[in-house]
Sequence to fold (228 residues):
Amino acid sequence: MIFQKLFDKIFHHEQLSIKHVFSLFCFIFAFWSLYRYFPEILPLWMEELILKPLIWLVPTFWLVRKVEKEKLASLGLTKKNLFPALYWGIGLGIVFAAEGLVTNILKYQGLHLPEVGYSPLSLIGLVLLSFVTAFSEETVFRGYIFTRLWRIWKNEWLANFLSAFLFALIHLPIGIFVLSYTPLVMLAYLFFVFVYGFGAAFVFARSENLVSSILMHVFWSWPIILFR
Fold:
């Protein structure tokens, strides 16, 4: 009886919108998995500036504008609650950046700072690229998937859990085809991605402004970039 009620709540309330959410995820997952199957086809800048927006953002914006007939502000692309978005994104972002640093120390049994060899110009480019990546991924998973599930189910935590799970799942192809993780390492990797996804939806829900999760994404990604 409990499982039946949960099933009804998930799949029988505004079924068409649920189809939109899962259709978008399946579309992105299929095409992004196909791309990841052929690693290093495109340089990183072209992947993040051109390919990812085409596969991730174009169908999302099309759903919002043409199918749902809503404004892009419904994705959290708004000036409202900007200050709360800033302190939530930066505050929890620092926590996740610190978590990445502690993970690095535990992994290498000490502080491991590889010689990255970035010039000032390339470092600026990487920072800008991390914001572009964060914008694409946060628009889809927090701006669309999380907000639509939250709106349909009227349950922030259920929507948060599923959107974080889907966010972890979208990282499965890179773990398999690019990073070649072993099963145990893969589970740990997906778990930490899930935890981040849950935290990103949490800060977004506090302000309903995408700036919060974008900032948090950038803070979260830099320990990965520096210590990989």
Summary: Residues 175 and 219 are 21 Å apart (CA to CA). The radius of gyration is 18 Å.
